[in-house]
Amino acid sequence: DQATDQVTSLLTTNCGPVWFANDGIPRQFAYAGHGVFTIRRLNEQKVVQEFALDVEGSLDDLGVRALAVSEDATRCAAAVTNSADGRIAVWDAATGEHVGSLTNTCTALAISPDARCLATGDADGNVCVWALPGLNKIASFQQSRDTVHCLAFRRDLSEPVESAAEHPWLLAAGDAGGTVWIYRLGARKLMTICHG
């Protein structure tokens, strides 16, 4: 607790990204069940936003594969699977408005710091980057045959800040084999490979 300088124990509801909102209170984006995702204030377990997932088939066997929140907490994304298909959905965190969705199965998600790109990785080592809103494909990379476990964006410092580059990002993709592949999104090419 920042006001009292005391350690406070908070109960998290499930697995999911946690961040500090502008008011200093931690928030968590998590699956609440039956196709509903929530953002909760962890200090009081209060739901501040709900997001409904539109999926075909049963919600009983829904498996959450990945969750992501943008750096500025303006967008949330979820990747789920059920017996019918895989689905990726993105929402506006403030309004709950659906920003876009894909019928696709993935194992990792990341949202760029400007909340204009969504990266997805899958079990076959494929990495795709999609424009937000709308989820139009910007780039795709085949890195290996290993499952992509994690993705992260960072500003490409080789691009001048005043550059007209539409997507001035580096994208790191970590796979099950311990290798990290770093892509230069603006040039749509592999920059380096870090072997684990």
Describe this structure in words.
The structure is a single chain. The chain is mainly beta and 196 residues long. The chain has no helices and 16 strands. The protein is 0% helix and 51% strand. The strands form 4 sheets. The protein has a 4-stranded antiparallel beta sheet, with no helix packed on it. A hairpin with a 4-residue loop joins strand 11 and strand 12. The protein is globular and about 45 Å long. The mean pLDDT is 87.
| Side-by-side strand order of the widest sheet | 1-2-3-4
Overall morphology: globular
* Uncertain residue segments: none
Mean pLDDT: 87
Percent of residues in helices: under 10%
Q: Termini, distance in Å? A: 39 Å
Strand content: over 45%
| Structural Rg | 17 Å
Q: How can the largest sheet be summarized?
A: 4 strands, antiparallel
Give keywords.
single chain, 196 residues, mainly beta, 4-stranded antiparallel beta sheet
Topology of helices and strands:
Blueprint lengths: L17 E3 L5 E8 L2 E6 L4 E7 L10 E7 L5 E7 L4 E7 L5 E6 L4 E4 L5 E5 L4 E6 L4 E7 L5 E8 L13 E7 L4 E5 L4 E6 L2
Antiparallel strand pairs: 1-2, 2-3, 3-4, 5-6, 6-7, 7-8, 9-10, 10-11, 11-12, 13-14, 14-15, 15-16
Gist of the model:
It is built from no helices and 16 strands.
